[in-house]
Amino acid sequence: MELKLTIFLVLLLSTTILQSSSANPNRFIESSCQTTRYPLVCVHTLSAYATKIRHNNDQDLAQTALTVSLARAKSVAIFVAKLTKESPRFKRREYLAIKDCIEVLGNSVDRLAQSVKELGRAGHAVASEDFMWKMSNVQTWVSAALTDETTCVDGFSGRAMEGKVKRMIRFKVVHVAQVTSNALALVNQFAEKRSVKIP
Fold this sequence. Notes:
78% of the residues lie in helices and 0% in strands. With 199 residues, it is mainly alpha-helical.
C-alpha cells in the first residue's frame, strides 16, 4: 500500500512540474525565438512582455514583437532627427546621410504601424483567403520596413563616414533592424501555423 502511495505521489509531482514548465511564458518565448535570426536579441526584447503573451499563442508573440519593433523604430527616428539640429558640426555628406536616414526610418515606422493593425485584423479572419491576404500585407510591410532600416545603415558606409555619428546611428539602427527581422520571423511562424488550422 505504501509503495503504491509513493508511486502515486511521484507521478503527481512529475505531472505538476511538467505542467508548470510548459505553462511558463518565458519558455514559450525562448522556444519560439530559436526560429529567428537573432534569438538572443529576441528573448531579451520579448521577455519583458512575458506576462502579456498567452502560452503557445503565436499571434500574441508576433503582435508583441511587431509592437516592440515599432516602438524602437520610433525612438531611433526621434534620436536621428535630433541630430539634424547639430548640423553645423557635420560634414555635408554626413548631414545628407542623416536626412536620408530620417526619411527611410519614417517610412519604416509607418509600415510597422500598418503591420501592427493588420495583424490584429488577421487574427479575427474566419476565411482562409481573408487571413492569407492580411498576412501577406503584414509580411510585405515588415519586409519593406526592414529594407528601410538597412538602407539607413548603408548610408553611413565608407571611410568618409567614420566617426562618432556613424557609430551611434549604426549601433541603434542595426539593433532596430535585428528586432524587426525577428518580428518578421515570428509573423511568418504565426502565418504558417494558423493557415493550417483555417479551412
